[in-house]
Amino acid sequence: MSDHVNYLVDTNILLRFLMNDEAKQGTASKSLFEKAKSGSITLHIPFIAITETVFTLQSHYGIDRADIGRELLKILNAPGVTLACPSWIVDALDEYRLRNVSFGDACLAAEARIDGLAIASFDKGLGKFTGVLRYDPLIRRTFPSS
Known about the structure:
Helix content: 40-55%
Strand order of the largest sheet: 1-2-3
CATH class of the domain at 5-84: Alpha Beta
Structural class: alpha/beta
Strand content: 15-25%
Largest sheet: 3 strands, parallel
Low-confidence stretches: none
Oligomer: single chain
């Protein structure tokens, strides 16, 4: 029987790990990631935890998108950490980090590219993403990215 344990990680673990604004929880979160690094556990990061972390870091803490993207990508690429969500989340974090776009739009664009789908939206800003088609249902027309 294996002693290896798998955990699905909640947003509060990511926030305490990144912000360390509650000392005991921050220390416990860092310990969890150290155990993952040593190989004794595996941490699975779900899409919702990434989304909530991005939103909280930007809106509550006022952290810059480049810093948020960089730190979350470090976590997702750390030993003992796996994605419990679609792999396109990495592309979305990269777009979010490098461009002046919302994380939600970056996720839509990344998923649309992977799945080969156009995005039905009134948001002309989606044209910023390369390789993405936007369908405007109001005028019934598809627009390529710029």
